[in-house]
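Researcher: Checking consistency across runs. Here is Glutathionylspermidine synthetase again:
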Amino acid sequence: MRRVAIAERSNWRARAAEAGFRFHTIDGAPYWDETAYYAFTLRQIENDLEDPSAELHAMALDLVGDVVASEELMERLAIPAPFRDWIAESWRRRDPHLYGRLDFAYDGNGPARLYELNYDTPTSLYEASFFQWQWLEDQRNRGALPQQADQFNSLHEALVERFAELSAQLPPPLYFSAVGASEEDQGTVAYLRDCAAQAGLHGAAIAIEDIGLSADGRFTDLDDVVIGSLFKLYPLEDLMREEFGAALPGSGVRLLEPAWKAVLSNKGILPLLWQRHRGHPNLLEAHFDNGSALPAGWVRKPLHSREGANVAMHMSDGRWQESEGPYAGPCIVQAFHPLPAFDGNYPLVGSWVVGDRACGIGVREDDSRITRDSARFLPHAIVDDAPAGNTRIYV
């Protein structure tokens, strides 16, 4: 694994405009960054990322049944009591799921280490699936990458296939929803809606704040049409806390991601994975926080934090780093395992699972050891003979 400098495509902004990729720059700062790419060998992809992703995904699914059958575990995960039966029933019905992302610390040597699961509202999908593949094709065509260069990326095909499989399991009408003012979330939802349409599954778009509630407790669109199925790029834990949340269990709406994903999108799944698979090479030791002082060599994360918010990191050498954010409540502690540093850049590898198949990666890098919502997305390539790049160091 190397970070390799490469010339930008002179027309990449025009290519982004043509493709409807409008969030390549966020708040004036670059989000899409193609001044470098991460080079992997095929062995690294297959042995260190693809196979472990599939294994960890199966291990996580295997825990869901135990959690939903246990009031004690539901309590440990801070799942509100009024929603526990609804979540358990969603699992018993095996309500279908679409996708998820596992985030790894990986340096090209030794096992990738799981930081967390993003299994409810994973983003960076469009850029991982479509735009970085377009980058690869363009760079091969202009001779900047060898013709045999490849990517671990069958995301688009997998999404279309998965939507085709889901078409008979989602009661109509289907809607795709996110916060109306979030350009990134709206872009992700538009891409997924297009993938569904390519599979013959058509759905309407609606902002999450425009969804209403009928007198009989059904969720409706702006024309008072009852919503049968809802893809929502919006945290389920937030929905459960909001005004209409109490209506979820009785509404009859089929959610995508399903309600049982509340178990896997919760960082409490990490200590549960460790308890069952202690010593697994891809897991970091993790426990539920008991409120004591955070010792050196450990990281504290709230159960429901996102985008690196409210993380406290007490490094092995005694240094501290903390991130701000809006999340409070119960936490877990996880063994500190540093991201590699490539010339001051800290990459986090997001490994995508569609259905139950690992089918692609995306790399986000930050100037900080904590990957925040300001992190940049860099493309990757499988190039066994890539030019020499930056050597990783640990700091």
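Researcher: Does this match what you'd expect to see?
Model: One thing to look at in this run: The chain is about 30% helix and 25% strand.
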